[in-house]
Amino acid sequence: MATAGVTVVFSALTVAVAMSGMFVFADPTMTSFGVGGLSAVLFSMVAALTLLPALLSILGAKIKPARMRAAGTGAFYRLSRFVQRFALPVLIVVGSGLALLATPFLEANLENGDARSLPRSSEARAAALTLADRFPSRGADPIVVIADVESGSAEAEAWIAALSELDGVAGLQVRDGFPAAMTVVDVVPADRSQGEVAMDLVRTIREDAASTSFTAEVGGTAASTLDAREMIGSRIPWAIGIVVAATLVLLFLMTGSLAIPVKAVVMNVLSLGASFGALVWVFQDGNLSGLLGFDPVGSIDLWLPTIIFLFAFGLSMDYEVFLLGRVKEIHDRTGDNDLSVSAGLQSTGRIITSAAFLIVVVFAGFAAGETLTIKQLGVGLALAVAVDATVVRSLLVPATMKLLGGNWSRSDPLPPGERCRPGGTRSGIFLFSRVEP
């Protein structure tokens, strides 16, 4: 508990911080995700610090000790040593590769899901596709404009005539059955319901309405998508800033280093960028649609990048804290940066890989679903966790830690003149003992 307990606390707090980023958006769905994720993490932390020690005190005698392994052995240890010998080339090649994989996300088209996102067996989906196929002339979903002006008045007629002449208008119809004190107009854009032509048309109508003597509100599919995009765009920097800043502070308190927390955040951003690029390549561009069983719609769900970023950032940092906790524990005993990283990676490698595999299996269940949004969420999170637990942990972490050198604050410094060597009597996969010079 003196060592793993600290790791559990910092790990839980970093994940909780990432979940808290969802509260910034003040959206009921995002808030629900945040409350669910935050409570699950905090309850798990409390259980690990209280229930688990109690159970171990009862059942611990029946647990066999781990098989001891000689220092300097193991696949993760050897891989780490190899990476450390070629740290700069590995960092350049792997970092550039992840950045390259992220480039498709620059062309991401973010839209709200429609009937095409429903399962292929859905009757609502079949009806929507049938309407679009048999009645293509009905066009896109209309932009609905509600004006506080008397229907049929000269002012209303002049305003409607001006609307019909705007660029991008394919059709216009005044609705009947409303009170005479208001005018409701359906403006059909000349492009897709959530295309750029429709978005520009919404902006133009709103700008023009500001110069009229009456109030006009603009709604519909295009308007709601535009509003959501602008809201996310204005608040995502705050969410990312809060999460990153809090994570940096927590990692600094844990490691006593300024460089290592920055390194951890940069590594996570690289792995997330690669998963976002793959998400666009698979779902927006339609690659692997046959294998995954979906019909591409040419877009990514509007909220998915934000949800995936916050969830995956928390999970990735969870692994980072788990690894750094073990590395710092060994560094406090040895003072050897390279040996601590290799030994820490070896002692945590199997656990992190197994945990990541279990999470990937869970998210693969999402990917097997028929609803496109859930499928995108599952694939995006599975890719982010897989890349982080393999490429980042096994290659980028040893390489960057080697280049950063001894940037640790030792919580248990050795007395002057002492040094450490592998092979003492301490328990654990890698053993170290203090020896007099």
Structural description of this entry:
The protein has 14 helices and eight strands. It is elongated and about 90 Å long. With 437 residues, it is α+β, with helices and mostly antiparallel strands. The chain has two domains: 4-116 and 229-435, Multidrug efflux transporter AcrB transmembrane fold; 129-224, Alpha-Beta Plaits. α5 (87-102) runs parallel beside α10. It has a four-stranded antiparallel sheet. A two-stranded parallel ribbon has the order 1-6. The chain has helices at 4-20, 28-49, 51-59, 75-85, 87-102, 123-134, 154-164, 196-209, 221-255, 259-284, 289-292, 304-334, 337-367, 372-404, and strands at residues 110-111, 143-147, 169-174, 183-189, 216-220, 300-301, 419-422, 432-435.
CATH architecture label name of the largest domain: Up-down Bundle
What's the total count of β strands?
Answer: 8
Distance between the termini: 31 Å
Share in β-strands:
5-15%
Number of separate helices: 14
* Rounded mean pLDDT score: 85
Strand order of the biggest β-sheet: 3-4-2-5
Q: Shape from CA axes?
A: elongated
Ordered list of secondary-structure elements with their pairings:
Blueprint: H1 4-20, H2 28-49, H3 51-59, H4 75-85, H5 87-102, E1 110-111, H6 123-134, E2 143-147, H7 154-164, E3 169-174, E4 183-189, H8 196-209, E5 216-220, H9 221-255, H10 259-284, H11 289-292, E6 300-301, H12 304-334, H13 337-367, H14 372-404, E7 419-422, E8 432-435
Parallel strand pairs: 1-6
Antiparallel strand pairs: 2-4, 2-5, 3-4, 7-8
